[in-house]
Amino acid sequence: MSAPVDYLPIIMQLLVALGFVALTMGITHLIGPKRKTTDVKLTAFESGIEVIGNARQPFSIKYFVVAILFVLFDVEVIFMYPWAVNFREFGLNGLIEMFIFMGTLLLGFIYVIKKKALEWD
Amino acid sequence: MSTLIVISILAIVVLYLGLFKAKQALLPISVLGLVAALALAIMEWNSNAAPIFSGMMHFDNFAVAFSSICIITTILVFLLSKNYFEKISDNVAEYYTLILFALSGIIVMVSYHNLSMLFVGLEIMSVSLYILAGIKRKDFASNEAALKYFLMGAFSTGFLLFGIALIYGASKSFDLAVIAQYVIDRPTGIDPIFYVGLVLMIVGLCFKVGAAPFHFWTPDVYEGAPTLITAFMSTVVKIAGFAAFLRLFSICFAPLQDFWMPTLLVITILTLFVGNITALYQTNFKRMLAFSSISHAGYMLFAIVALGAASTNAIFIYAAAYAVSSITAFAVLMLVKAKTGSENFEDFNGLAKSNPFLAFALTVAMLSFAGIPLTAGFIGKFFVFNAALAQYHTWLVAIAVVNAIIGVFYYFKVIVAMYFKDNQTKQIATPAYFNFVLGVSLIITLVLGIYPSFITNLF
User: Fold this and answer.
1) Which residues lie across from B57 on neighbouring strands?
2) φ and ψ of B112, to 5 deg
3) What does the pLDDT look like over B2-36, one tens digit per residue?
4) Of B44, B194, B235, B459, which is most buried with the most CB atoms under 10 A?
5) Residue A10 lies in a domain
6) Domain that holds residue A51
């Protein structure tokens, strides 16, 4: 049984965290050196060449597909580590379950290749 | 539990059929697979199953009944999809697969015995639906529907998850039986965060079933999504949402009725009025159906407000009646839209002359929606109101009856358009699949309306 007062430490922690951010930002603003900046100093450094256009341009969706597939198959490996550590304890059942998991992923991978999602052009 | 496995494998098989250019086989194999899954589900009836998968799921009679109704409705939706997806896109197999994946999530949602499985099932279903709502990639309304649904759905999932976390914090378990025991063991002095968690879960679940004041996504999403997907969302998904809602409340939170009843009562009344009164002003048939689905959510919430032994039966009958009527309405809408290109009430003018069968099927569906006797909708409303009256919510039932009368007004608009307004329209060709689905829905509506004891004594 916990009373609302038991959650006071969480509020304290929240206040400390917020206070720390406010304090450090305020202090750096107050005691830090002040510089006059011009527009040229604020532009991106492009090896001395004049900047052309904006960096925020739409980029190819193909890149997104490749990136998300990478994340997908990368995350899958995370499940392998705890399984490998406990391999002996899980026994035959664990092996079969992992094969089912890998088989499902393999089906997905074949689908990705067949759909030509990894071909750039 | 073989139902869930069959549906999951079926989804992958269908995906690969599409990959290897077997487009003709997609529909037959999907339907056959679902029939097999349905048979496997019904075979588990009364098997007194214990929770399986380390207490994660429990395929009891409740789960069997609601899985069956969801699978049957999905089969009807599939039968309507002949030649439908081909018009929208080349990737036909993916749509069947996504619907099947959504269905597998729904099976998890109606049979969970652990709050984490509720969450997993809900997400499997929702993620598939976000994609399905936006499958018309070049269509602005469809894109808007997908984005809105995604943002609102993600937001509501946050509420649900936070609620689950707080309930876990209080009861130290995700398991429904342990949470129920926690509530029973403490007639007084339940942890305050448990109550907060309960309210947050109500918010999350009300978002998913589209109850007011959390209904804002419903009309835009239902209107923007392709009609067939709207039919799926407003029937199968809504039923699954209510099944999950009812399962949670009847197992875990029944002793706390005094606490959550007023909240749900306000939500129910709001839902009824918002749904019905807004539906009055619609000129678009599909949008009217969206608002009418909000109001039907209100009627189904009734049975949860008056939670008792009869609630499961009441929701089951109401859901069955609502599902078959919705399928009919959407099927006729699809045919009319294919003919005229728009979805307004005027497009139904003179349908009784050109297509008497279509008009008759739609009339019966509308009567069933409105709750006129001799249709399934009447029996559904009767049982829902009966459950409420058993707990002396007399004035609540009075409000609902007023709403039902408002409902009659806008449901009859389309009947009036079909029978009493003339239009020089040529006959709409109805494919055999549509005739079959309309016929089946019509028979179910009338049989349940005239001889309801088929399913009234299931539980």
Assistant:
1) B52, B112
2) -70, 150
3) 899 999 999 999 999 988 877 888 999 999 999 99
4) B235
5) yes
6) 4-114
A1/B19 CB distance under 8 A: no
Contacts of A101 in chain B (CB under 8 A): none
Whether A114 and B15 lie within 8 Å, measured CB to CB: no
Domain of A44: which CATH number?
Answer: 1.20.58
A93 touches chain B (CB under 8 A): no
Give the integer Cα–Cα distance in Å for B106 and B251: 19
Residue A69 forms part of a structural domain: yes
Strand partners, B175: B114
Asked, for residue A120, whether it belongs to a domain, the answer is no
B85 closest CA partner among B20, B144, B26: B26
Nearest by CB to A2, from B12, B19, B191: name it: B191
- The pLDDT tens digits of the residues spanning B201-255 come to 999 999 999 898 888 899 999 989 999 999 999 999 999 999 999 999 999 998 8
Residue A104 touches partner B, C-beta closer than 8 Å: yes
Quickly list DSSP for B126-193. Answer: HHHHHHHHT--TT-HHHHHHHHHHHHHHHHHHHHHHHHHHHHHHHHS--BHHHHHHHHHH-SS---HH
Query: What is this model's ipTM?
Result: 0.79
Show the tokens assigned to B385: 């109101």
CA distance B206 to B198: 12
CA distance A2 to chain B (A): 7
Instruction: Give the largest Cα separation in chain A, rounded.
Output: 70
Residue B391 DSSP SS3: coil
Task: Indicate whether A50 belongs to any domain.
Answer: yes
Between chains, do A111 and B15 touch, taking CB under 8 Å as contact? yes
